[in-house]
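hey can u check if this looks right to u? its 238 residues, i copy pasted from the old doc so theres a chance i mangled smth
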Amino acid sequence: MIIPQTIKKLNKKLIKYSDELEVCVKKNKSRKLFLKLKKQQIDTDREISRLIVGILDDSNENFRRVADKNYKLLYNNNFKFKTTQKGMSLFGTHASLLDGYIHDNGFAYCQTKKTNFPLFSLFADFEYPSRFEGFIDCLGNILLEVKQTKYGFYKRVPMAFDSRIFNNGKIILDTTDLDPDFFSEGKHIISNIIGSPFAHKEDELLLFLENKRILINMINDFRNENNLYVITNHHELY
């Protein structure tokens, strides 16, 4: 199988971060550096897995069968996301891309990866996201893009969202609550949000996690077969 260049480039980055992380541990470098490298390693590994999911979903019937079970568990889960941390943006006026995943504790964590690049406007600082749309895959990886925005009389930061997951993994977040931001000159934006897609559904969460472990093993087999780097302590990433 021909491996896409995107995966090859990410694989090189993953090896680099993993090597630097090993040196950091051996030489007892600062905890701040360790956490930075660990996050880069985790984010890169998760992006590679996200891309391999698409390949195996199209080419591996056993993978697709287990993946479909997790999509069915996610389907029709309606739950709330809440903003747990606000951040600052030098240029953008709101978050435009959120990236995250469902942790083994059942909570979904997403953080802002990109902000918008507003055209010059007297009202740009009063714009806020009213809807995000994106995709959640069979491992629980989440990618959300802003699809609709609205304007307030002053800067508003979304603080709560109603979310819906559809049978194809599509997910939509609609803003339900706003927090006034009087003092930051329009620079406050969403930094982190958290939700609980399996709230009060412990049995479904356990089944989802068991399916995910099976899928990750298949992904690692694919990596080994195609000479892609595999992190040995993979459980720490999810």
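Helices lie at 5-26, 31-59, 61-74, 202-225.
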